Amino acid sequence: MAYELYYWTGIQGRGEYIRLALEEAGAPYRDVAREQGDGVIEALAEQAQTPSFAPPVLKDGDMVLGQVSAILLYLGEALDLAPQDRRLRLWVHQIQLTIADFVVEGHDAHHPLGAGQYYEDQKPEARRRSTDFRQQRVPKFLTWFETVLTRNPLGSAHLAGDRISYADLSLFQIVAGLDYAFPKLMGRIGGDYPNVRALHDAVAERPNISAYLRSQRRLPGNEDDLFRHYPELDG
Amino acid sequence: MAYELYYWTGIQGRGEYIRLALEEAGAPYRDVAREQGDGVIEALAEQAQTPSFAPPVLKDGDMVLGQVSAILLYLGEALDLAPQDRRLRLWVHQIQLTIADFVVEGHDAHHPLGAGQYYEDQKPEARRRSTDFRQQRVPKFLTWFETVLTRNPLGSAHLAGDRISYADLSLFQIVAGLDYAFPKLMGRIGGDYPNVRALHDAVAERPNISAYLRSQRRLPGNEDDLFRHYPELDG
After folding, report:
1. Where are the beta strands (DSSP E) in B7-139?
2. Would you tell me how many other CB atoms lie within 10 Å of the CB of residue A59?
3. Over 90: is that where the pLDDT of B223 sits?
4. pLDDT band (50, 70, 90) for residue A116
5. CA-based radius of gyration for chain B
6. Where would I find the beta strands (DSSP E) of B19-83?
7. CB B234 within 8 Å of CB B184
8. Residues of chain B whose C-beta is under 8 A from some C-beta in A?
């Protein structure tokens, strides 16, 4: 039976981390809200015994699971996108959780006062927060990913183990997000993290991912998404 | 062999979610930085093959694991603080991840422009963000926890299953954090979430937790911690 993904239409958002795993594995899935509208997301939360605080939500048969990192923990095993070794599996999960933390910071760079207020109502604050994000946080996270790749005893092509994992796919996605939102910054410092860049490029060239990126299913970046290109916040 | 916890001295912080699990289970552990100073945290990250982006870090023999939710996933199994059933185990993990999201928002209520700048340099912004936090986010999260408790088919005394889990302990901790940081807010709305309050109180009375809370190991809340009591942000 096909997996069912429930996520806001119109953006890549957090749903994209799930889509990349499903697409890489060639797993059958339905993007339910894109078929039936965003209303199905709330409807699912209202009826589920395990309601999610926010999308994305994955439905597999009668299992309803939310939170990107929990969904990927589940799919990593089901789709063979995580190492077999239990410790390595936990390590991949730890990396994913750190990616999730970074995604929050990427969003808060343009919405430091909270998602409840428009960007237009917090522009000076976004300037200050994004300066800290560009100067301190992005380099700190990218340095960490580079270190993880460098220290992988099975080779620097993957964050953990010697095969693709969902964490590799997710790292691709945040680099793609940074390239979109902060082209000036990434033009300046992107080359400082050669293993990160090489992983991004290698993921983009994987047959299933490459086909996905060229498909209609891959939405372009936009200014409703988590990573937003506001030139005044780049530099 | 005793578990080794590495976390900043001086605050409860994110280390507390790990401590509560270890204390509830009566597991032997060393709080290494409190014995040897904060320097051991960075030293561990520099030498580990699996360096953590930030503490807390748990060392169990030669395994070095970071990220609160990953550590609790591991300890939940090792210390029998999670359901046996695989789906329920994922559900507990999903709840924990939502608690982790809330902790970030609790911190950002007083540091909306980033941890790199002092509170004193972002007070007006903290006022705006904390207003949104109090009026929108806290009620939304507490409503969700109340719903989860209410919908638990095995009883509303636990978030999942019919026994204590690490997520119950973590929910206790964020309610305690809110009580400390936002006493006015919680005085006004705390009663709206009776199952959440009952769970908090029941956890506090568990023998091992009660003994822990009265011990020197439980630090009092303070204004270096994640939850901070700034009267100007309460209301």
Report:
1. 29-31, 57-60, 63-66
2. 19
3. yes
4. confident
5. 18
6. 29-31, 57-60, 63-66
7. yes
8. 49-53, 63, 65-67, 69-70, 73-74, 87, 90-91, 93-94, 97-98, 101, 104, 108, 112-114, 116-117, 125, 128-129, 132-133, 136-137, 141, 144, 147-148, 151, 153
Per-residue model confidence as pLDDT tens digits over B117-166: 899 999 999 999 999 999 999 999 999 999 999 999 999 999 999 999 99
Instruction: In whole angstroms, give the CA distance from residue A227 to residue A225.
Output: 6
- Location of structure tokens 């760079």: A109
How far is B143 from chain A, CA to nearest CA, in Å?
Answer: 10
Q: Minimal CA–CA distance to B173: which of B65, B16, B29? A: B16
**Best CA proximity match to A145, nearest among A187, A105, A197, A108:** A197
For B31-69, write each residue's pLDDT tens digit: 999 999 999 999 999 999 999 999 999 999 999 999 999
Contact A121, B79 (CB under 8 A): no
Q: Report CA Rg, chain A.
A: 18
In this complex, the residue of B94, B116, B133 whose CB is nearest that of residue A132 is: B116
CA angle A78, A84, A87 (to 5 degrees): 120
Q: Closest by alpha carbon to A135, among B72, B114, B145, B1?
A: B114
pTM for this predicted structure: 0.98
DSSP secondary structure letters along B154-223: T-TTSSSTTS--HHHHHHHHHHHHHHHH-HHHHHHHGGG-HHHHHHHHHHHHSHHHHHHHTSTTSPPP-T
Q: Dihedral of the CA atoms B214, B21, B134, A65 (nearest 10)?
A: -160
Question: Residue B101 contacts by C-beta under 8 Å, 6 or more apart in sequence?
Answer: A53, A104
User: What is the ipTM score, two decimals?
Assistant: 0.98
Is there a contact between B147 and A90 if contact means CB atoms under 8 Å apart?
A: no
Ordered by where they begin, the domains of chain A are 3-78 (3.40.30.10), 86-205 (1.20.1050.10)
What is the distance between the alpha carbons of residues A142 and B56, in angstroms, rounded to a whole number? 20
| B227 and B221 Cβ atoms separated by less than 8 Å | yes
Q: How far apart are CA B189 and CA A38, in angstroms?
A: 30
Is the four-CA dihedral B23, B25, B26, B28 of positive or negative sign?
negative
What does the pLDDT look like over A140-190, one tens digit per residue?
Answer: 999 999 999 999 999 999 999 999 999 999 999 999 999 999 999 999 999
CA-based nearest residue to B129, from A49, A117, A178:
A117
Identify the burial level of B214 via C-beta atoms within 10 angstroms of its C-beta, where 0-12 means exposed, 13-18 middle and 19 or more buried.
exposed
